[in-house]
Design brief:
CATH superfamily of the largest domain: Creatinase/methionine aminopeptidase superfamily
CATH topology of the largest domain: Creatine Amidinohydrolase
Strand order of the largest sheet: 6-5-4-3-7-8
Number of helices: 10
CATH architecture of the largest domain: Alpha-Beta Complex
Structural class: alpha+beta
Number of strands: 20
Helix content: 25-40%
Number of domains: 2
Order of helices and strands: EEHEHEEHEHEHEHHHEEEEEHHEEEEEEE
Shape: elongated
Length: about 425
């Protein structure tokens, strides 16, 4: 147990000898021991999936689409809680506008599928010499949708669309993203709670892993500590570290760079709780930060806060990117993408990157319940990079960072 004013010795090397922050680990008189954080988490229920399907049916009706067909994908899991691998044999669910779901399954997989699909739902099978597309077409016609519109999920492979057009002609095949994206983009209170916890766990994992920083360690070593800390808290997760000049590569460099005194340490990673993800980046210095490192870090944090304060319902997504980019350009790290080389953020939920994006040109209006990353950065090749990333949820009157534990300074990067 240590107080916030004590320093931890790792491998015989005192972190204080490198000027390492005394506030990095303990936020109170004693440190918390990592423990399983999933105790008491309420899982998704059949009612949650029914509500998602009802919302899909509402959107189908609004867009005058008769049915949505989904194959093995995150979208299939989102709407049905069924996890199924992708195959050349067509398997999926037909979500109809005014009827219960019906499953399309290769006959020899029927028993395995029955173990997964919700009890009481209809399943129609096709033999190896038969066409699943004719089967789908027949179901559509019997449902009263002759000559209707069939939406395919955005990850449904092209051979399904080609098969429908060839073997079940007479239906208009349309993009199902209008349904899947408009359902998934707004998170429920339960989904936001999962993301809150996932982001907190990742931040706590970083704080725990950073205790093990030592001169000469490899990025793989630090990644192992991050992964272990996640596991101790009951999840599978991790983070990808970059040291020194390698941190100037936004997604890392292939060149090996072991940790040295006064190096930037940039870590980006996450985990999931009940299928909903975190995405967190922290940038620290192993040693005493230089004036330049501190200056760049402060600019990036200022940009993150400027973007955060801009968020509110009805604001276009592109305005959030613009607010952060202005801070960085005004500080002399411009123009445009020269140093802040990527968009500000991405949607996040069951996938690490999903609809929609905080980027120039995106006129999509923010709505309460949307969740995004906010991750400005400055990357100076040959020197170092700094990125600070927290996820947030759009609220009725602004935004809230998920998981708390915001960065306060380069030597206080993980708040309590």
């Amino acid at each position: 147990m240590v107080s916030r004013r004590e320093f931890i010795k790792i491998g015989g090397v005192s972190l204080s000898a490198f000027g390492f922050t005394r506030t990095l680990f303990a936020r109170s008189g004693v440190e918390e021991e990592l423990k399983n954080m999933l105790t008491g988490v309420e899982p998704l229920t059949p009612q949650d999936f029914s509500k998602r399907q009802e919302k899909a049916q509402e959107i189908l009706a609004q867009h005058k689409i008769d049915a949505l067909f989904l194959t093995g994908s995150v979208n299939l899991r989102y709407f049905t809680n069924v996890n199924w691998g992708r195959s050349e044999r067509t398997f999926g669910v037909l979500l109809r506008r005014a009827h219960d779901p019906v499953w399309i399954c290769p006959a020899f997989e029927g028993e395995r599928a029955q173990e997964r699909i919700p009890k009481g739902q209809e399943m129609r099978t096709w033999e190896e010499h038969e066409s699943p597309y004719k089967l789908i077409g027949g179901i559509m016609r019997r449902s009263g949708y002759s000559g209707g519109r069939l939406a395919l999920g955005p990850t449904v492979r092209s051979f399904v669309a080609q098969g429908m057009r060839k073997e079940a002609p007479g239906f208009e095949i349309v993009d199902g993203a209008v349904v899947t994206e408009n359902c998934r983009v707004i998170k429920t209170a339960k989904e936001i709670a999962y993301m809150d916890l996932a982001n907190k766990i990742t931040k706590m994992a970083y704080r725990e892993a950073f205790k093990n920083l030592r001169d000469g360690m490899t990025a793989r070593d630090l990644g192992g500590y991050i992964r272990t800390a996640h596991q101790q808290m009951g999840v599978s997760g991790g983070g990808g570290p970059s040291f020194g000049e390698n941190s100037a590569f936004p997604h890392g460099s292939m060149a090996r760079r072991d940790l040295g005194n006064s190096d930037i340490v940039l870590v980006d990673g996450g985990c999931s709780v009940e299928g909903f993800r975190s995405d967190v980046t922290r940038t620290i210095v192993f040693g005493e930060p230089s004036d330049r490192q501190r200056k760049v870090w402060d600019i990036v944090r200022k940009a993150q806060l400027a973007a955060h304060k801009t968020v509110k319902p009805g604001i276009p997504c592109e305005d959030i990117d613009k607010a952060a980019r202005k801070v960085i350009e005004d500080a002399g790290f411009g123009p445009d993408y020269k140093y802040f080389a990527h968009r500000l953020g991405h949607g996040i939920g069951m996938e690490g990157h999903e609809y929609t994006y905080l980027v120039r040109g995106n006129k999509t209006l923010l709505r309460p319940g949307m969740t995004f990353s906010n991750e400005p950065g400055i990357y100076i090749y040959g020197e170092f990079g700094v990125r600070i990333e927290d996820c947030f949820v759009v609220t009725e009157d602004g935004a809230r960072f998920l998981g708390g534990m915001e960065s306060a300074a380069i030597d206080d990067p993980i708040g309590g």
